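Lecture notes, part 5. Sequence design as translation. It can be helpful to think of inverse folding as translation between two languages: the language of shapes and the language of residues. The source text, in structure tokens, appears below.
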């Protein structure tokens, strides 16, 4: 307050009633109007206190006068002294600095040492930037705070110009170009809480900051929802778990790390005693930013990082979770509508019994052993989960590895599949098992994911019937289903799987007889390298109505594309190269089309069909089967396959090393084979199936095959034949082409005369030759035995390459020849298609060979080879074997 001056004037003299001055006499000073004694009197210098105010003593220049003195904050006083006779004398005096009325007005308004305003204070300034208020600290060179006429405020240190500002920048806009660090802020009803500013978190890593962070989370919940913002720093949390509840957004700013300081789950959306079933628990939660460090090596006991249950509308994004022990980085259990985006999961420690843990696990509320945070355990699954742009891999922390699995589940209950799961644009590195392991997932899309150096790639599986607990619902005492259950709609597109280490197949869709996968598609995906374990590129078991198209599979330790017990599939436009096993295998499958695929450098068969029915193999290109296993086939059908259609395929040898046994090899157990239009090059054919159809007509038009008598192989169809004039010459061996399968037993050879029989024969006999004209079997010489007109002559085999024998069994499928030689005075006409009079000798050729023949040649050990075709007469006689 202000100091006011009194005394020191000629009128300030103490006198008695006679007018005499009274020297050295005490004077009391009171506040005018209240009479309160004033003890805090100061000398004229304003600092030296006066113990007792007295009049000037005798001998002074003004004896009896009251010297100048000052009083703090009192604008009017009364002097008081005891006059002779005991009376009290007082007189009034105002402060020297101002009239009492003026001082009263000023004192009622503002005092420079502080006052209270009860009315409005206004400034009229010429410019919006004129300063109306400012503040200094003693010694400051610049004002620490100021406000200008337009309401803008600025702050500084006092030692330099102001550097922090807050102002109106536009209509409805309050702006600061600096950083605002609030303890609590309300934005449109959203309360913002800073655990460091308001609740005492230190962020040094040296103390347990969990109580402060929890207090901020509790405050957000108590406010009906809020935003907890954790500023940069390292926050050790030892009081676990942190609990986040309804309508909360938890943001870790860049540079903020929450690190485990004790065992247990780090973050949980609720309390152990709650009982919100279905999706009614604490939801509408966002968790984002910063780093969550679970410190697995410091706390090597299984624990979650984030565990979210019985909730909906969950977002976890833009954060790093590192070094988790045993359980999961993120578990979403009984959650609907969840997004996990741009979350990195690096570093894992197996405590000894968790070699299968997933970084992100969708799970269901089955039991406390499945989800330990809270109940109820009502078998609620996850629905509508998007995992976008996430990645897993090693953290580099000594003693940790990459995650065993990136995303997946390993619990189940009857009729409780997780539904509508999308995994897109993710990267998985060095997983010991699967990058993605979907178990009882219904409606799944995996798109544009990269999988590097993992044990297996993508695995989708129906409920495992061998697990009694998985066939038993939550709280149940025994299974309620006898086997597995079907799932629908699995789509895997445009993924890249490289360097798989052989834990399992690169992509695997696995159902069971009691629970198949229905409606599956694998498209545009690349598998490059499955280096160990005999594992396959793509493997399907018990999958119905599926599409495998435009995939590339290279360098697998097993089969490129493997199918077993599947149905209704199309396998088209795929590229398979460098397998150790077959290119494409199809075991006990039905109604599968394998078409337009390109396969090269295959360890075993190009395409292998084992059993099953109604399989179509069309327009596939196969080169270099048997690269690793000599004696394989370009296309192999075996194990009682039925109803095969094999058309338009092109099969080529690799050109060096092991080569195919045959371009197409079909065992005798296969039935109802239709085969035509295949380009086998020089790979050969080995079709031992029963009664294959080899024309491009369906059964209503394949009269040539339908009209062929059972057990008979013909040089041409009977439907093409008539009686033709003989162009044959006496004593000449003619070879007529015939197709025979491998394993055909030839016991008899037959030809038929037309209207002219054999006149005066001396020798005639029939032979069987291979594609190189080497004689394989012959009949006995009939010498002069009559052969009348219009008569079938059937002669038994008498000698083969093995010696005297009654039959010969063919050793390959393909081109053979029947030989006919007649020496007679009158040559017969023969039933057939006539003769080609020129050009028949062009390779592989048919027609006239040796001349001057009489008795049959010796064919034992392949001793006789017919001469090269002369090209004079290409006889097209009708002959057949039985």
């Amino acid at each position: 307050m202000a100091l006011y001056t009194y005394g020191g004037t000629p009128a300030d003299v103490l006198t008695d009633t006679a007018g005499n001055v009274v020297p050295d006499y005490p004077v009391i000073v009171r506040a005018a109007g209240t009479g309160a004694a004033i003890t805090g009197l100061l000398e004229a210098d304003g600092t030296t206190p006066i113990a007792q105010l007295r009049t000037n003593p005798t001998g002074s220049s003004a004896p009896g006068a009251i010297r100048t003195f000052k009083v703090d904050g009192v604008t009017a006083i009364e002097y008081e002294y005891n006059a002779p006779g005991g009376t009290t004398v007082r007189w009034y005096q105002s402060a020297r600095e101002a009239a009492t009325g003026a001082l009263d007005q000023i004192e009622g308004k503002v005092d420079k040492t502080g006052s209270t305003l009860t009315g409005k204070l206004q400034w009229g300034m010429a410019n919006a930037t004129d300063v109306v208020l400012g503040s200094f600290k003693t010694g400051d060179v610049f004002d620490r705070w100021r406000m200008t006429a337009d309401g803008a405020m600025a702050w500084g240190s006092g030692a330099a110009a102001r550097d922090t500002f807050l102002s109106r920048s536009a209509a409805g806009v309050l702006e600061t170009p600096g950083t605002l660090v609030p303890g609590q802020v309300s934005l449109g009803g959203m309360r913002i809480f800073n655990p460091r500013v308001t609740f005492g978190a230190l962020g040094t890593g040296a103390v347990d900051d969990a109580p402060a962070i929890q207090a901020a989370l509790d405050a957000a919940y108590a406010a009906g929802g809020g935003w907890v913002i954790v500023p940069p720093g390292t926050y050790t949390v030892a009081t676990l778990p942190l609990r986040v509840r309804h309508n909360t957004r938890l943001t870790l700013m860049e540079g903020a790390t929450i690190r485990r300081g004790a065992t247990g789950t780090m973050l949980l959306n609720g309390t152990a005693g709650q009982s919100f079933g279905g999706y009614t628990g604490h939801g509408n939660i966002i968790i984002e930013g910063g780093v969550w460090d679970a410190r697995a090596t410091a706390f090597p006991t299984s624990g979650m990082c984030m565990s979210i249950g019985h909730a909906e509308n969950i977002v976890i994004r833009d954060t790093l979770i590192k070094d988790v022990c045993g359980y999961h980085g993120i578990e979403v259990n009984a959650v609907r509508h969840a997004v996990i985006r741009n979350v990195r999961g690096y570093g894992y420690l197996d405590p000894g019994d968790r070699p299968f843990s997933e970084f992100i696990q969708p799970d269901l509320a089955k039991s406390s052993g499945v989800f330990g945070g809270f109940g109820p355990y009502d078998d609620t699954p996850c629905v509508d989960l998007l995992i976008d742009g996430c990645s897993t891999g090693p953290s580099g922390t000594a003693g940790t590895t990459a995650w065993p699995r990136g995303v997946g589940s390993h619990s189940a209950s009857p009729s409780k599949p997780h539904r509508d799961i999308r995994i897109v644009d993710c990267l998985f590195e060095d997983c010991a098992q699967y990058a993605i392991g979907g178990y009882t997932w219904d409606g799944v899309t995996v798109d544009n994911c990269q999988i590097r150096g993992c044990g297996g790639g993508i695995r989708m599986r129906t409920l495992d019937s061998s697990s009694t607990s998985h066939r038993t619902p939550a709280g149940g005492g025994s299974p309620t289903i006898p086997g597995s259950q079907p799932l629908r709609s699995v789509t895997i597109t445009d993924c890249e799987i490289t360097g798989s280490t052989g834990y399992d197949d690169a992509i695997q869709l696995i159902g069971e007889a009691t629970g198949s996968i229905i409606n599956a598609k694998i498209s545009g995906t690349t598998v490059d390298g499955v280096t160990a374990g005999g594992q396959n590129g793509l493997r399907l078991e018990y999958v119905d109505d599926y599409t495998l198209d435009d995939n590339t599979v290279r360098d697998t330790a097993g089969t490129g594309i493997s199918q077993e017990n599947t149905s209704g599939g199309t396998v088209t436009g795929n590229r398979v190269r460098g397998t150790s096993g077959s290119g494409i295998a199809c075991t006990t499958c039905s109604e599968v089309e394998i078409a337009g695929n390109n396969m090269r450098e295959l360890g075993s068969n190009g395409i292998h069909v084992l059993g099953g029915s109604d399989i179509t193999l069309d327009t596939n290109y196969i080169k270099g089967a048997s690269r690793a296993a000599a004696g394989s086939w370009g296309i192999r059908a075996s194990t009682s396959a039925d109803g095969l259609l094999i058309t338009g395929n092109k099969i080529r040898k690799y050109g060096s090393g092991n080569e195919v046994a045959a371009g197409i090899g079909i065992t005798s157990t296969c039935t109802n084979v239709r085969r035509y239009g295949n380009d086998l090059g020089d790979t050969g054919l080995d079709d031992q199936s029963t009664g294959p159809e080899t024309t491009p007509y369906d059964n209503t038009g394949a009269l040539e095959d339908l009209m062929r008598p059972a057990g008979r192989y013909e040089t041409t169809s009977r439907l093409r034949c008539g009686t033709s004039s003989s162009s044959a010459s006496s004593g000449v061996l003619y070879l007529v082409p015939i197709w025979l399968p491998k394993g055909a037993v030839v016991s008899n050879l037959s030809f038929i005369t037309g209207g002219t029989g054999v006149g005066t024969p001396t020798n005639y006999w029939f032979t069987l030759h291979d594609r190189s004209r080497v004689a394989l079997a012959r009949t006995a010489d009939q010498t002069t035995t009559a052969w009348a007109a219009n008569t079938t002559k059937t002669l038994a085999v008498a000698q083969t390459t093995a010696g005297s024998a009654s039959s010969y069994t063919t050793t390959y499928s393909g081109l053979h020849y029947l030989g006919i030689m007649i020496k007679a005075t009158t040559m017969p006409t023969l039933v057939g298609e006539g003769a080609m009079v020129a050009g028949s000798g062009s390779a592989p050729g048919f027609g006239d060979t040796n001349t001057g023949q009489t008795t049959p040649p010796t064919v034992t050990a392949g001793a006789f080879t017919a001469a090269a075709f002369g090209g004079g007469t290409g006889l097209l006689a009708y002959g057949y074997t039985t």
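The translated text above is only one of many valid answers, since several sequences can fold into similar shapes. The radius of gyration is 53 Å.
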